[in-house]
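note to self: dont lose this again. the chain is below, predicted strucutre after it. 305 aa total, dont forget to put it in the shared folder this time
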Amino acid sequence: MKKTLNKVINGDCLEVLGDSNLFLDNSIDLIITSPPYANKREKSYGGPRAEDYVDWFLPISSQLKRVLKDDGSFILNIKEHPEKGERQTYVIELILALRKNGWYWVEEYCWYKKNSFPGKWNNRFRDSWERCLHFTKNKSFNMYQDEVMVPIGDWAERRFKSMSESDFIRTTSHNNSNLGRRVANWLDRKYVYPHNVIVFENEHYIEPTNVVELATECSNKNHSAAFPLELPTWFIKLFTKEGDLVLDPFLGSGTTAIASILLHRNYIGIEKQKEYFNEALKNISEIKRIQKNITLRTNKTSKRV
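---
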């Protein structure tokens, strides 16, 4: 693994992953990637057709399963597009095929793209979310939920200024929904898990959620489908710890590698297209240069003090 650790490899991911000298069994802590969608990016990645997508991806998934640790996770960012007036079904078919091949489909995170491309069509509104599918090899896996906690929000300070006796008792909705809340549970909490603020019978409380709200990538003009740095960052925090190894077999311009570097994780990236491979190397080199300069300035400041 020393040949591939913290490296970007230019090549087809199926061929590269199939080299057992480069990738050992059970060696990767987290796989996170966004492969080309069906009938998209045809010039750069061959653009597998929707009807061929499952057959194209399954051999890749078998190699991913081989290299992933037993307690690791695989995050697949993918979304089918509409065609001829209806949604394609290849993502649903792929999920079922992966389950049949031994993957556990643990969760589906919704990436809500706050600045998605505006528009309205005759039979649908704008597409403002994408799937981030979570697969594992076992039902027991590493997950560090506290690492993705967020500030509780200004609403809590206003709400907790005046507490009544009922706030210290768990109450249940009167509409037979079995929804309940105990306001006092949130007292003195500065951070909570990603959440929505829910209004429940004129009261506010928070509901942990699997919706990840992030803007789409706007700064990277050299890749046709780059996802934002915050997306791999969030999942790397959730499923790995410092020193763990993260793999992106469709690295693109290097976003997953950059997130790994900033979070002190090791990384391996695979990128088929030479243009994007070179872009990834440039972006990774730049973030390392910035980190080095920050370290030098910090050391100089410490010596003066």
